[in-house]
Amino acid sequence: MKAVILAGGLGTRVSEETIIKPKPLIEIGEMPIIWHIMKNYSKHGINDFIICLGYKGYMIKEYFANYFLHTSDVTIDIKNNKTDIHDIHAEPWKITLIDTGKETMTGGRLKQIEKYIDNTFCLTYGDGLANVDITRLIEFHKKNNRVATVTAVQPPGRFGSLDISENKITNFEEKPIGDGGWINGGFFICEPKIFDYIENDKSVLEKETLEKLVKENQLSAYRHTGFWQSLDTLRDKKYLEDLWNKENPPWKVW
Q1: N or C, which end of the chain is more exposed by having fewer CB within 10 Å?
Q2: C-alpha dist (Å) from residue 173 to 61, 157, 178, 235
């Protein structure tokens, strides 16, 4: 099975980082966030990736083209134009990198890689970390027999929660789970038929495409109550960095 990663957005809300690199290359623990995402898929036996590029996509190409330089010791013979790689540390990944346009919307990016898909596939964003059980997610999708399945999550509240009775605080909870609502957490499983629901480069996956699927009862929801966190701001980056530097970061399942 293949995993498609949407990695072409501008990342304007974390422009302090994205002014020099695409959002999926923002580092958590000295490794790009997209690497963390791919490691989790790999843990579940998915090692064939299609990455939809856009803003500064050439940097993602260069990162993977020079992957050995990032992960292994090397000897570079400049005179003879030769590089020897020592103690190779590389994942068993096959990565197809597709330029889908700087201004293309999420649905349009997906539509452009249709020719590379011939079966059920995974789909997610290049800026969200979670400990979703991909194997169980796939099983859930197949059992429900719909065009697509989205992972539904409940993000933590941004502020602490207070229960107050007669001017007295009866309970304090730091950043509790949100107000009970479920949101799109990415980590989709899709059938190739999803491409029939996408019109062109201006199509937004989260709007036109998913709305059409809902109207035709073709979108399932897999409830994930474990860890999930998107990287939208520097605050999110610091939070993920702090978790990584502690023992057993919650999304590290490999």
Answers
A1: C
A2: 43, 10, 12, 20
pLDDT digits (tens, 9 = 90+) for 8-34: 999 888 988 999 999 999 999 999 999
SS3 65: helix
Quote the Cα angle for 215-216-217, to 5°: 95
The domain limits of the chain are: 2-245
Nearest C-alpha neighbor of 90 from the set 108, 65, 111: 65
Letter for the amino acid at 13? R
Give the chain's radius of gyration (CA, Å): 20
Return d(Cα 12, Cα 229) in angstroms, integer: 18
Give every CB contact of residue 247 below 8 A, 6+ residues apart in sequence: none
Report residue 104's pLDDT band, with 50, 70 and 90 as the boundaries: very high
Using left for φ > 0, alpha for ψ between -120 and 50, and beta otherwise, residue 193 falls in alpha
In this prediction, residues 109-122 reach a mean pLDDT of 97
- The Cα 129–Cα 32 span in angstroms is 11
Q: What is the DSSP secondary-structure string of 222-238?
A: EE--S-EEE--SHHHHH
Number of separate helices (H) and strands (E) present in the chain: 8, 16
Domain 2-245 CATH superfamily = Spore Coat Polysaccharide Biosynthesis Protein SpsA; Chain A (3.90.550.10)
pTM, rounded to two decimals:
0.89
Tokens of 196: 């029939």
